[in-house]
Model the fold of this input.
Amino acid sequence: MTATHLPLYSEVIRKSFATVAKDFNLTIENCPGHTSFITNERLASKIKDGYYPFGYLADDKLVGFASLTDMGGTYEMNDVAILPEYRHYGFGKELLDYCKDKVVALGGTKITIGIVEENTVLKKWYATNGFIHTGTKIFDGLPFTVGFMEWKV
Done:
């Protein structure tokens, strides 16, 4: 990923997470840090050693994104996104499997994620793909509970 790609990646992330924001009534006023409101600058701030961003192309069009961050052998996965009109074709699973393979190749031991706990459809999807629910936490300023899941190599 280069600086020239940031606007493309940010747009895919915002459009993909807009459905979550709508489903859970998240607005820039009640949840300004939600991924559906990511800016190019906020995405750029993640770029550092141990950060691995991935785009997903379908028909030569960027339709998905995911990132991994090395936390010392454990990799945090963030911003897993597929544009709504490209969902239900297996692209999300392909992107997730690619991230799993990348963690294995990097010598990692597990992937951790945080999701909107109340998003039962997403939680079930991750569980179907080998992730185990490890707990929840309520953060000040967030209008939802954060659920934590992990996948072990």
DSSP finds four helices and six strands in the chain. The first strand starts at residue 51 and ends at 58. Residues 6-152 form a domain with the Aminopeptidase fold (CATH 3.40.630.30).
